[in-house]
Fold each of these.
Amino acid sequence: MKKTVFALATLAALGSSGTALAQSNVTIYGLIDATISTTNNADSKGDRLTQIPVAWFSGNRIGFRGQEDLGSGLKAMFKLEAEFVVGTGEMDTPGVLFNRDAWVGMQSDDLGRLTLGRQNTLARDFAQVYGDAYGSDKLGLEEGGFTNNNNFKQMIFYAGSATGTRYDNGVVWKKVFNNGLVAGLGYQFGEVAGAFSNNTTKSVALGYNGSNFVVSSFYNEADVGNSLNRSTEQHKSYSLGGSYFFNSLVRLNTGYFHYTAEQGALGKRKDDAYTVSVKFTPQGQMDYELGYQAMKAKNAAYNVAGTSTLNAYSNASFSTATGSGKKSTIFGSAFYHLSKRTELYLAADYMKLSDGYRVASTNGFKNQTELAAGMRTRF
């Protein structure tokens, strides 16, 4: 996926000892995913909208990544990654350049990897192996691909933090053990004077890479919001799931998420969600994905306008009403791989809402269908 296009290697003598300085390198890389989609119920009359939206499967990005060998198995590393909107070229997050990643860290086989800065939440990286059909095959030290676009990419919010699905001011430790065990700890500093715990996130995760399966879990809690009354904004979630590989052709994924949130005068929210999906990779240039997810929310706060049920780990301090209901989505896709770096895809999903679950994009309707075609390439 990544190609090293710039490298520096320095070798020098220190005094008369002949000791070599460490080798370092910098990689410039990127990804462009362009989608054309059409969606029904796109306004109050139920009209259809056809557009070039935010990419369906991968955030468009350009990044810089480097590492330096410090000797004795220890490495220093960094990552800076910016996301843009392919349809317009504008920043994905206005005014924020490196909105995907901006961190520095150190790594060794014995100690694992420790990183500081803006980065994926720990829970996100451990849940992406089963959260939908598009995650990594194994747990590891690298950040995983688990996005939040379109109606079926929503489980990620249960793996969130006080600042969304990435930590601001985060510290993450991960280690892959020789016996297949993978462990991690995550912490997000709130940086609120006089209230150390405000806007903090604490996470622990544990998983196992088997010969033909992966099991993963996390526990996560955050104090969300700017109010000094932290008890009204405490959010918690845990999850358990995994993947099973039937030879090299079929991968089955399934997982369960439980989430609770204190919402002040609105009372306590409780969600139960689950997902199951399958990825079929026959011989040749095609692969196929099919999945289902259900999100059941009890006493969940709406946004200020009352048009949408808030995502998990959202600040509900300005909300005035709640509702209970279910959101279920079925999705499918097919990818045609032109090369190892470039593919074409077709995708679709159908979302159904019941009772008091609301999604603003449906404009009051109880269902929505999305169809998409796209191209993704990496450099």
Amino acid sequence: MSSENLPQSPEQQLRKPRVAVVFGGRSSEHGISVVTAGAVMRSIDRTKYDVLPIGITTDGRWALTADEPDRMTIADRKTPSVEQLAESAQGGVVLSVDPGSREVVYSEPGSVPKALGEVDVVFPVLHGPYGEDGTLQGLLELSGVPYVGSGVLASAVGQDKEYMKRVFISFGLPVGPYLVIRPREWEKDASAARKKIIDFAGDHGWPLFVKPARAGSSIGITKVDDLSGLDAAIEEAQRHDPKILVESLLRGREIECGVLEFEDGPRASVPAEIPPVSSHEFYDFEAKYIDSAAGLVPAPLTDEQTAEVRRLAVEAFDAASCEGLVRADFFLTEDGEFVINEINTMPGFTPISMYPRMWQESGVSYPELVDMLIQAALRRTTGLR
């Protein structure tokens, strides 16, 4: 029997829904996930919901953390960690995988496990592998706990840039030239794999962007202007993911658009533009989160261009079977065509992040946005849908 069909006790009927905010994780985006969680927790309406913060350490331990979002900010150009917030260095949180129970249990070595009560919905703000990529979503499906955002398939597609592009191409969405080097290719013959990249540059020209295929927040990406910088770029990308993606430079403007699922279906926000950042080669991690590069919201586009990018953003959302929210990133090329670069199924949610800024400009405030996502998750069932 699934938990949504279980009869509710009077206590369950009277209490506020409990939201477990899960953050941190094992990926290289651990720190920015903590920052995102702090912003979300600060904005959840505590008169409507109870909040249970659960942090995942860099080694994968689920930790009970303090409900102190003001500690979850960037300070001295450094991001916070779950280890700094955990109430114990050894205690662990366990979510039942029995779909008939949503009980969360906390235990420490040598102590009797302590029940923390049931969770009604999970708000996962993990970025990157081991959280945003469908792994956590699969666990929550097994547990029968509703959650914010896309399901297993869409989360996996949104994380793996190779298969994301394959899906987009199959749905007729415009995608720029790219090349994938898989781990087995590199291990079998690194020289041949390197030659594939050089041949790709011969076909499409320098510079190239070399990036991890399954990472985000612009981590591990290098702009390579010529052959001399290629090996270092490959090494940097492989530090984050053994599968790497190589893309040609698309000359034009960087345009982003948010998609949010309303009760009547997904809608697109006003788009934003990421202007060139003079102190950075491209819109990298430092520009996004440390130096707070200012995007233009709304983007200075014609009415026709705005309508087109919003249409494409919703098409990308549907093509990957997304749910809840997505940020879709595009290039507006010099010949006036939109090319989709990627989608992000759990976009940055910090106060300076583009996704909430675009919806703010579209008439949905940050607290309203958080509430809408929680309510949408509570309406959905787990399992096939």
